[in-house]
């Protein structure tokens, strides 16, 4: 917020966008094409519009965090590592991402 970003509560999540949050999201592997990132019940987005676009997908990740709890981060990253080691696509073949894309349309 002190870096020019904004935040709001939307349903059962807190969303932040703009300012340093936008910069952080753009530093992720997808760069400027990464719209948002979910950490528990917090969604970080580049802009208000990117949150609107990514919200259905990110809400699937919120439900995954509810199911997996503290194991979600290690499980997600572990899947990425195994897929990378197998020569597959760590993001697109990740079962957490596949579920999110399937359920969010």
Secondary structure topology:
Layout: E1 6-10, E2 13-17, H1 19-26, E3 36-39, E4 42-45, H2 48-68, H3 72-85, H4 95-104
Parallel strand pairs: 2-4
Antiparallel strand pairs: 1-2, 3-4
Helix pairs in contact: 2-4
Describe the protein.
It is a single chain. By secondary structure, this protein is of the alpha+beta class. It has one domain. Helices cover 50% and strands 17% of the residues. The chain has helices spanning 19-26, 48-68, 72-85, 95-104, and strands at residues 6-10, 13-17, 36-39, 42-45. Strands 1-2-4-3 form a four-stranded mixed β-sheet. It is globular, with a radius of gyration of 14 Å. The termini are far apart. The model has no long low-confidence stretch (mean pLDDT 96).
Mean pLDDT: 96
Q: How big a fraction of the residues is strand?
A: 15-25%
Helix content: 40-55%
Helix-strand pattern, N to C?
EEHEEHHH
Number of domain units? 1
Query: How many strands, what sense, and barrel or not for the largest sheet?
Result: 4 strands, mixed
Radius of gyration using CA atoms only: 14 Å
Number of strands: 4
> Any low-confidence stretches, pLDDT <50, length ≥5?
none
Oligomer: single chain
The 3D shape can be described as globular
Count of helical regions = 4
Distance from N terminus to C terminus (CA atoms, Å) equals: 32 Å
Spatial strand order of the main sheet: 1-2-4-3
Class of secondary structure makeup:
alpha+beta
């Amino acid at each position: 917020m002190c870096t020019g970003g904004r935040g709001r509560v939307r349903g059962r999540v807190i969303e932040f966008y703009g300012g340093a949050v936008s910069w952080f999201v753009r530093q992720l592997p997808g760069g400027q094409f990464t719209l948002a990132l979910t950490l528990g019940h917090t969604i970080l987005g580049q802009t208000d519009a990117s949150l609107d676009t990514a919200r259905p997908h990110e809400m699937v990740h919120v439900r995954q965090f509810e199911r997996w709890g503290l194991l979600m981060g290690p499980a997600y990253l572990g899947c990425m590592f195994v897929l990378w080691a197998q020569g597959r696509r760590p993001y697109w073949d990740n079962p957490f991402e596949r579920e999110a894309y399937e359920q969010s349309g």
